[in-house]
Amino acid sequence: MEVKNKIILALDVLSMDQARELLDEISDYLDTIKIGYPLVLAEGLEAVTQVKEEYQCKIITDFKVADIPATNQKIANVTFQAGADALIVHGFVGPDSVASCVESAEKQGKEVFLLTEMSHPGASQFLQPVSMDIAHMGVEMGIQNYVGPSTRLDRLEKIRSIIGKDSFLISPGVGTQGGDPKDTLKFADALIIGRSIYLAPDPVESLESIIDSIEF
Length: 216
Ligand code: NUP
Hints:
This protein is of the alpha/beta class. Helices cover 48% and strands 18% of the residues.
């Protein structure tokens, strides 16, 4: 996946009005937007369809899908039918659950991102001990796209070394959660950024300063 300016906006606002107000200002800088539970639970899955159509962007849906294979497949089918280009899937549920999402994606010409280790502090308790195994599982399954934390660069580096240089790694945790954009891009292909942009007094200025900081 190509990501303009190496930034994926996490569109965690709670209405389409807020989403449009933000995107009218900043959409020229972006071509990939991540939509998760906040906006979809507030406005319905049509939010995915509407943002994609109105702003001509790729949509990564962040539902951290983590159910049995049969249910995962239904979630993936419905999400892709709504227009999502990619779906973020939890790895800890095991290969059969992940495979059902991959199968749905392949049938519809879409993509799956495998979530390895999460970026928040609590991830160190249960997820960290298995996150490298999750990355290895992804490689064994032939998965191309991964999500890993910008808040623990030593872990992100390890994930990159497991998945190889040709895999595509996107990384949340930049800004508000403490991760540094430029350092993260030593290991990741693109950053996922939400609050540092949409809560900024001037989202355009915030986005421009992040872009300036990562240009080399
Ligand atoms: O490990 C993860 N950490 C994380 O923050 C996996 C995620 N998908 N996210 C998501 O990235 C989180 O749900 C939010 O949508 C975005 C980060 O937003 P922010 O911290 O930049 O506001």
